Amino acid sequence: SCCFLSTKFHDPMKKTQLLCNGCLRPIMETMQFYICAQRSCNNFALHEWCTWLPPIIENHPGHPEHTLNLIFSNDLPFFFGVFECKVCMRSCNGFAYGCVQCKYYVDVTCGFIPKEITHKAHPNHLLSILQVEEVRDTCCHIWLRYTYKHQLLFCCDTCDIYIHPACALLL
Questions:
Q1: Residue 60's closest CA among 118, 119, 108?
Q2: E strand or H helix at 45, and its extent?
Q3: 116: how many CB neighbours lie within 10 A of its CB?
Q4: pLDDT digits over 106-159, tens only?
Q5: pTM
Q6: Within 13 Å, how many C-alpha atoms sit on residue 74's CB side?
Q7: DSSP secondary structure code for residue 125 in this structure
């Protein structure tokens, strides 16, 4: 059984951390969260909003052909449950959305990637998400690295501007 608890939190000054086992971000003093009351769970904690994650995502821009299911990465056949997110290309663990059949996994943040954004690097136009279908001579205008087939990018069709999702959303 789990209980609501608000006495343990992340305090960078004291170097104590309570991380959410879902999104692996710190649980701060002002946040509501749940923690398992059983000692065998080793302080398994979740932000309140991580308990609301939907069990499936349909029509994800990077993998629209299959439904992505919410999974705990420790249940995947990876060392310590660490996988590479197919959107931001970062090493991740915790909760993920995935298609086991295609070995396509994204972290919970990238599971909800928007279809359009505005960005300070290109403020006059909307940037739309697109998946690179062929190897192209396309370069991220922030990271200055080339793209590869099946990678997601935000692009401005008018100006031929491309930005990786990690550069656009996570930095």
A1: 108
A2: strand 45-47
A3: 9
A4: 999 899 988 999 988 888 899 999 887 765 667 788 877 776 667 888 989 888
A5: 0.77
A6: 4
A7: E
11 contacts: CB under 8 Å, gap ≥ 6: 29
The confidence score (pLDDT) of residue 5 equals 44
Residue 115, φ and ψ in degrees, nearest 5: -80, -25
| Nearest-angstrom CA–CA distance, 61 and 10 | 34
The token duo for 14 is 């004291």
DSSP state of 26: B
Q: Do residues 64 and 102 touch, judged by C-beta distance below 8 A?
A: no
Q: How many angstroms from the chain centroid is the CA of residue 23?
A: 8
Per the CB < 8 A criterion, the answer to whether 98 and 76 are in contact is yes
Average of per-residue pLDDT across 44-63 = 91
Question: How much is the pLDDT for 3?
Answer: 45
In contact, 86 and 111? CB cutoff 8 Å: no
